[in-house]
């Protein structure tokens, strides 16, 4: 499906757009059909850019927020404040990655020597998938009881 270019997309989502204009940080909505809601929100962002003269307060929302779907809801996350906290000596903390595939994606994107995922909470099957990926990807996996998961890049060994 392609986005509409009609102003009706903005009118339909006006209350939600107003909320984001006034918001000082991330915002979350519950929705019975979160994919449809997120689609309409992104669509309104696109149309607002097209009609930036008529809707100047909405035109910047596309650059300001990233929209993603969660179970039962939609989250608008500020783009300029990533939830990645650099620490000393190449260690980074990534709070948003909680599932195995999210952790793999973060590891591939950031390639830091040590990555901490404090909010990761997975079933043993998911941990097994992550462990297998770590074995072929030169990472070691440490699962803690109360501090999430750590991925540490294995040192390159001379052959």
How would you sum up this structure in a few lines?
The chain is an alpha+beta fold and 159 residues long.
How does the SSE layout of this entry go?
Layout: H1 8-12, H2 14-22, E1 27-30, H3 34-50, H4 56-59, H5 61-64, E2 65-70, E3 73-78, E4 84-86, E5 91-94, H6 100-110, E6 114-117, H7 124-136, E7 139-143, E8 149-153
Parallel strand pairs: 5-6
Antiparallel strand pairs: 1-3, 2-3, 4-5, 6-8, 7-8
Descriptive overview:
It is a single chain. The chain is α+β, with helices and mostly antiparallel strands and 159 residues long. The chain has 2 domains: 8-78, no CATH class; 84-153. 40% of the residues lie in helices and 23% in strands. It has 7 helices and 8 strands; from the N terminus they run ααβαααββββαβαββ. A 5-stranded mixed beta sheet has the order 4-5-6-8-7, covered by helices on one side. The chain has a 3-stranded antiparallel beta sheet with strand order 1-3-2. Strand 5, helix 6 and strand 6 form a beta-alpha-beta unit. Helix 6 packs parallel to helix 7. The longest helix has 17 residues, at 34-50. The radius of gyration is 20 Å and the shape is elongated.
